[in-house]
Hints:
Elements: E1 6-12, E2 19-26, E3 44-50, E4 59-60, E5 64-66, E6 71-72, E7 80-81, E8 87-94, E9 104-112, E10 115-129, E11 132-139, E12 145-153, E13 162-163, E14 168-172
Amino acid sequence: PLSGMRIDLEKSTDGSTFLPVPASATTATDGTFTFGGLRSTSKTWYRAVFSGTTEYASAASGAVCVSVRPRVGQPIGPRTMSRGRNTTYSGYLMPRHSPGTHPVRIYRYLYVAGAWKYSGYSVAIATHGSSGDRYSARVALPTAGKWRLRSYAPSDDAHAAAWSRGYTSVTVK
């Protein structure tokens, strides 16, 4: 192991074209190194680069892909609603997604015979708000009873998939 050697970091958004990151580390006595404090809002590949010395050739590590899991808030809206009537539910979404895209689905579950039964989903649209990105969707629940709504952001080119932490309970009359 080489100790006291400078290691630089490079990143890529496509996994093939790498650019320097303003971060470096120094190898420990056992040759290990650590990078910390890195932030990314979309899928990013990283690799470590050793520039070499007069004694040792330069080298680059293999690329490591880091996927960003968005934070998706649970849907917020009325706790009671009329059967079949469209009602708007919304929540927060981070990191930013392009306005007008459909990065979130609101899944619907009906309580039937002691169990929650999947009953489809509504597609939500992304918007930029004053306190961050939001999503909203018109949701119609076709049957009277107890319902749960939960938000889901499927994976895309830049993000991993993510569920909201909780459900929103709705009673339909």
